[in-house]
Amino acid sequence: MPTPPPSPGLPPGGATAPASPRVRPGTGRTPAALLCDMDGTLVDTERDWLATLAELLAEHGADAGAAALAPFAGLPLDGAAALVAQRTGLAAASAQDRLDAAFTARVRAGVTVQPGALALLDSARGMGVPVALVTASERPVADLVLTTLGPHRFTCSVAHGETPRGKPHPDPYLAAARLLGVPATACLALEDTPTGAASARAAGCRVIAVPTVDGIEEAPGTLLLPSLQEVDLGALPLAFGEDDG
């Protein structure tokens, strides 16, 4: 499948992650920017993605149970296709094309916005906090979802294939911070999978995770919540751009 062109203004070249921050709990500072994962975080498409994978795996006689699907959570298309190929013997290119077509069709049929997502995005806008979409999905899928969420709610977006490396590497979050002109250590990332949370943490972001799968653990700079409805940008127990030292 041809790689979609990068979004306008995407900085070229690689990026390196700053040292992992330590956060002073209870400071309650406002982030310089809000960097949002898409699938599973803002829209309930992670289950569509896993259902797409389950169908292809089952078709080729591979295990498609919950435990077998867990490693796919948060993976980009090419990484998922490679894993499908390992498990089924299907060529990776063929697996990628089939996954892409099936998942895009599901998204085009309509997606469900996660509870609290639009209110949170609008809250950020009202506070003057810029918002970026940072997704492991391909650009065509990202653009479909942006239409649902309202492109006016986002200052920029970074999709898979538009940085040298995808999640769990820090590149997507570093690119989004650069596009917004702020340091990643001053940003709050919203995630739902271990892969995405690892990417955001490696970039130096503070992270709020609303997990859709197991594997994310609370740590300095990482807060787990049951819903986006629990996120109050004006009263966060996280300090941005600072360290305890």
From TrEMBL:
UniProt biased composition (Pro residues): 1-11
Superkingdom in the source lineage: Bacteria
Region of interest: Disordered: 1-29
Entries under InterPro entries matching the protein: HAD-like_sf (IPR036412), HAD-SF_hydro_IA (IPR006439), HAD_sf (IPR023214), PGP-like_dom2 (IPR023198)
Protein name according to UniProt: Haloacid dehalogenase superfamily, subfamily IA, variant 3 with third motif having DD or ED
Taxonomic placement: Bacteria, Bacillati, Actinomycetota, Actinomycetes, Kitasatosporales
